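3.2 Worked example (two chains)
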Amino acid sequence: MEVSKEPESNTTSMRKALLIINCIVLAIGNCAGPLMMRLYFIHGGKRVWFSSWLETGAWPIILLPISLAYFHRSRTQPGSQNKLFLMKPHLFLAAAVIGILTGLDDYLYAYGVARLPVSTSAIIIASQLAFTAGFAFVLVKQKFTSYSINAVFLLTIGAGVLAMRTSGDRPANESNREYVLGFLMTLGASALYGFILPLVELTYKKAKQEISYALVMEIQMVMCLFATGVCTIGMLVNDDFKVIPREAREYKLGETKYYVIVICSAIIWQCFFLGAIGVIFCASSLLSGILIAVLLPVTEILAVIFYNESFRAEKGVALALSLWGFLSYFYGEIKESKRNQPALQTEVASVSDRHTSV
């Protein structure tokens, strides 16, 4: 009897395709999200809790792919007990806790973006990679190769190069206290999200059920639901719901564009969160952190194009270092994959021999 390798090959190919799709989705959210949020603030938006709410408020969109996955299971597995939601109570509780932390992180990040230019806040967020690497080592025993260490080092140095000349980025109408507070809030957001990414990976590993991509979407929905709940409480306390209609009327770009920006921002941020936890599902929290960091110079360039922020030599150096680090990581992954392939073939061959002897 011969053991077929085709199902395993198909699964690997599907997982790689899913990883590429999630990387693209993450890139869209990571680059466009900060730009949309800053656009809200620079043209008259002032509600930090509302801006935080927009980061996860579009969570009902996730119901659409969850429903499609349910109908697909119903057609392909008609004899099985099929449910719309696969999540068990303990996993729901874990996702809820992570969602509350995400809500707090949303506020810290939105406060920083309200006070800092896109380039400056992006630089600070790059420090998230160091936090992610540290927490991944502690929480999920992430194994580091020389290539992944090199990638973390290069990306961190790239962020440091960008930070060399940020003193001139402070808005003219902003006090030194507000600028420093915005800096600290953004750094706090970076540290907290650097903790959240490995925590999501730990949740996958400790789940007492099979983790499918449909279940990943459910986790994303529950996380965003509870994060939105945290931000909704903040909006109620801050009377944001009463102020939003007036803010829309007084918005510099007009009331219609105000609501267009708000809706687009909410949808784009869903791309970020779904892409981030999707990459964790397909690979690791470290790769998710590396992708977020490597996209930093892209956000910088987009800020230069759309907001006329200056593009100095250090931004070009940071872009080169980020690409170098990114390529270093993937080169290491390719080498590791090739090293593991002979062992996998030997294992399959031994299984085949056992079945043949039987």
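3.2.1 Second chain
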Amino acid sequence: MRRLLARRMKFHLFGAFFVSVGCAALYKFLIADPRKRAYAEFYKNYDPMKDFEAMRAAGVFESAPPK
């Protein structure tokens, strides 16, 4: 029973470290990178003036009435 806490603490510390690094890597490759690519693809062809004119024509803005 000697040094039982120290042994178990070391095991759980390393285990927690590797699990957290694994979760961070999975998040980066499965969520963050595809999200970055999706935003880049969206803004590659995005025309803010066209979007503004569409919202203006729909009557979304009070300060810019539809033409």
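3.3 Remarks
Residues 27 and 33 are 9 Å apart (CA to CA).
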